[in-house]
Each structure stands twice: as structure tokens, then as C-alpha cells.
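Sample pair:
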Amino acid sequence: MTQPGTARRDQLATALDAVRARIDAACERAGRAPGTVRLVAVTKTFPATDAALLTDLGMLDLAENREQEAAGKVAELHELRPDAAVRWHMVGRLQRNKARSVARWAAEIQSVDSVRLARALDRGVGNAREAGERTTPLDVLVQASIDSDPERGGCPLDALGELADEVAGSSELRLRGLMAVAPLHADPGQSFDSLARAADRLRSDHPDATELSAGMTNDLEIAITHGSTCVRVGTALLGTRGLASP
């Protein structure tokens, strides 16, 4: 009889192969090498046991979108797979009062959308390093708001330069690039085209900020066509919440 854990691992392995095949095919159509696009698995609302199975399959870039859920899951995964070299990413909106906490576990935050948040993270990372809770600066992607909708988070495109300069000037943060979510009910091609132009402007001022995180389950192919170097995938890997393992 197949054990429940084995069945879930097989399910995740099949899904992971399918997503990687989609990325490879999109890269080929765009004339890009598959290795130029990184896959980040978004494990929000799914248990640490699923995250552990993903690490067994070689998936070490994992992401969460709520600090409250992430902190516990990070600790639980460390107990389950203490030797896994996981890079945890924060991809959701972050409140400034959570900066100290997220600095303890995040390798990268992809959702820095204001100067005030950048400054809070700078202090949080500094405090975490002084306490021996981390040893390196925090990688940061500034989040762009393509449609300037304040409810969806992100920095307006015309203010990205100031925010990027703030991050780049911090001793505790490393500016890695740009992130965005395609607006709802908008043409994703046009959205990602605007984002690509914003990324070009960012790189002209900050040549090391080469990451462009764009594309999820439903639009990763379009994002790759427009230069995405990182896709954030949850549903296509782990299923809908109702299908998650208990």
C-alpha cells in the first residue's frame, strides 16, 4: 500500500516536473537559456511537511507571504530537514513592525515598497546581526506597482528610483532587483512590458540589480517573454488549498 507521504511526494514531483517543463518551453520560445529563470515555490497556507518534501526534490527556494505563518513554518522545516540549505523569500506585504522578526529567517524580501519599510528592515537586520541571529545582509527586491493601486501594495513607478537608492545605500540591505504582480483584469503582456522598462531604468542606475521577479502560475510564460528572471509559483506546484495535505 502506498503511504500518504509517498503519494504526496509523487504528486509534488509530477507537478514540479511540469512547472519546470513550462519554464524551459517559455525560455526556448523567448530565445533564452532555461537557467536564466529561477523557480521559487510559494508554500503559503501549506504545511511544513509539504515544504520538506519539496526540499527532498531539490526545491530550495521557498516563499511565504505572511510573516506570522512563515516564522513557525521556517522553524518547523528546520526541525524536519535540518541539513536543507533553504533560501526563504518573503513575497507578501510586510508591516514595518514585523521587520525585526522577518530579519531572523528571510534570505530575501521581494516586497519592499516604501522608504519607511526599507529603513525599518535596515534596523531590523542590524539588530538581528548584533544578536547573532543572522550573519549576512538581507537581499531586497523593490516591489513596483504597475497600476498604482494602493490596496495591492508596491511602489509607484515614478518613485522607484528614490526607493532603490534608499535600499542601495543601506549597509544591511542588498538591492537585487525588482518585483511586481500583474494587476487584476489587465493585459499581463502590457503590464510586464511596463515592468521590463522599469527594470531597465533600475539597472541603468544600479547595475547589480539584475533580478526581475514576475510571473506566477497563470502568467509565467508571458512574464518570461518580457524578461522575468524569477517566477513565483504556488498553485501549479502544491494545488489549491482544499487539496493540500493535512
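The chain has one domain: 4-239.
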